[in-house]
Amino acid sequence: MTVENVSTSSLTTTAALTTGTSVASGSQTLDSEAFMTLLVAQLTNQDPSDPMDTNEMMAQQVAMAQMEQVVSQTETIQEQFALTMRMAASEMVGKQVSYYDSEGNVVTGEATSANFAASVPVVTIDGTDVSLDEVLSVDATAAATDSTDTDSTTDSTTTETTDA
Q: Domain 91-146: which CATH class?
């Protein structure tokens, strides 16, 4: 009995048929489930006289694990960036903020609120909603003058004497 080598395209087709998914070319992502399906199909259809090299199999599994880690790190970085943008927008509230209006003029006003409904936070400046990407500058001195509280209470020191 003659067994022919199995090509990658036939493995992909076999994996697609066994999982009931369609095969797309180009930018389709390969997740761990699809990887394992392909690996099982490859092992099932391999030539018994020339089995898959275990080093190659391990290298494929390591590459898949590394890819999953990179994807996880990318998602974490994106979440961290989104949180940083929200914090930046929140810190603008009560401060003087400058931005370009629709005519290209620089407008400065007080940021009164921040909205996080969109992917990029929106800051309301004197009644106008401005995307965080469009903010030119923030005047930190305006907040410093508003937050200075003077406390007029005096400290008193009490001395206690004891008889020996």
A: mainly beta
